[in-house]
Amino acid sequence: MAGDQMAGEQDDGHAARPLRRPVVVVGGGPTGLSLAIDLALHGVPVVLLDDDDTVSPGSRAVCYAKRTLEVWDRLGVGEAVVAQGVGWQRGRVHHGDRLVSEFDLRPEPGHQMPAFTNLQQYLLEETLIARAQALAGVDLRWRHRLIGMMAEADHVALRVDTPDGPYDMECAWLVAADGARSLVRRLLALEFIGQTVRDRFLICDVATEADFPKLRQFWFDPPFHRERSVLMHRQPGNMWRIDLQLGWYADTAAETSPARVAMRLRRILGEGVAFSVESAEIYTFQCRRLERFLHGRVLFAGDAAHQVSPFGARGANSGVQDADNLAWKLRLVLAGLAPVALLESYNCERLAAADENLREAARAAGFIAPRTPMARALRDAALHLAGRFSFARTLINSGRLSAPTVYVESPLNTPDATADGFAGGVPPGAPCVDAPLGQQGEADWLLRHLGFRFTALVFAGDPPSPGQMAQLAGLPVPVHTVIIRAAGSPDEADGGFTDTEGRACDRYDARPGTTYLVRPDQHVAARWRRFDPAAITVALARAIALPAAA
CA 497 to CA 492: how far, in whole Å? Predict the structure, then answer.
């Protein structure tokens, strides 16, 4: 690891020793950038290394789910992403030339973010980069390529190459968010477990002025692409994502030739429709992950940790939710407020999320590309029956769309007490649900007041006293209190919010006194039917992985 020091990386008090950073993130895609921003907003300085100095070519990841948009809103970019993108919530599935199924992903009002927003990855990355550059705690280093590393007991030593020469640096924690071909993964000689599905898809970005519906459309065996499937999504700027199933034995060189691509697209878009092809590449289904996401002081996130098919929009969404899970845990561990065991919960919770995504991706692959004649016969039967029978429509799988994971088995959860009798609401391990609120006549949203810190969300009957709230705020890991009043309640000077439409109480199965302990990533840690500072304190200790005795 010896070599010249990069300017600014030498510890002046120890001339032979590189400066040690709290966190280094490798990879400047959506996962790495989201994590860097989140860490900086948590007060953790972070260095982000990327071996390139451009945003991603082509649209790549394009479809972002409501939960991911809520994470980005907490990071200060949610509204910008939604404003640039194409929001949608409806989809159609066709078999041949028949419409067999329609769906609506957000059938109820009262949410700030759309069900999904489509935006080319390069536009997303430009937005995230601008946000990161505005934060003093993020050190973005483009064309800084990791070329070597050595994991020690209390740090990771890195060797980085740049156009100006190599340098050494150290970090307390290294996060590998460097994509499907992760160099960090290769340096540690780690292998994926899982499967590669024997099918290939042509993924195209197509510019056209044609006015197709702004929704997700999927075709099985359409007249314009017989025996195969086609997916079509709208993006901003009159751009369309079109995915065509080709089969395992497709000639990849021939299928990406401009003439062949144009021929296939002309069949889909129609003769006489003008279009241009912005990008075209071949994709193979991957349903794989690392056995563990935590290896000593190296953590893996995004495609470096797990890979799924693009049908269902589970790749980038899962990576951003990895970052959402990890940032607050790193902050508490670095600050000495939580044991290193808290990071094991990242491994536990995000492995569960990855396995859920892999199961759904594998099921979608099995329906879209049946592996046996019997599977094909069952698939076709479901499609034939779907036009007439609702039960058959539930069997259709064109890619179950990304949904946040409920960490049912998380060791950080405090289970519901039987006596509390929750019939619904948001259980421990689940992400909080948004709802419209009001404060002094101004409209607001619930999720905007949760995140970055532990929060006691209290549905007030008799609100907590100032002394009780001060008790929670004075804990080593402070708990902030947010009070929700029912619509029509007397306006008290408690700094609380009004449940203007009654949706918050309904969605949280709340009655006067109901209290939720919410983690910094907006997942529920515990809930009770009354506000109890002692119970909250015990649940907080569990939620930061402190031993029971502590």
Answer: 10
Q: What is the number of H-type helices and E-type strands within the chain?
A: 14, 26
3-class SS of residue 274: coil
Distances (CA, A) of 122 to 227, 502, 512: 33, 39, 47
Q: How do residues 297-352 score in pLDDT, each as one tens digit?
A: 999 999 999 998 777 677 899 999 999 999 999 999 999 999 999 999 999 999 99
**175 and 304, same structural domain?**
yes
CATH number for 468: 3.40.30.120
- Beta bridge partners of residue 24, listed in sequence order: 47, 174
What pLDDT is stored for residue 59 in this prediction?
62
Any idea which residue has 């924690």 for tokens?
173
Q: Considering the entire predicted model, what is its pTM?
A: 0.94
Residue 234 lies in a domain: no
Domain encompassing residue 513: 418-543
Distance CA 34, CA 448 (A): 17
Q: What is the pLDDT of residues 133-178, one digit of tens each?
A: 999 999 999 999 999 999 999 999 999 999 999 999 999 999 999 9
DSSP, collapsed to helix, strand or coil, labels residue 419 as: helix
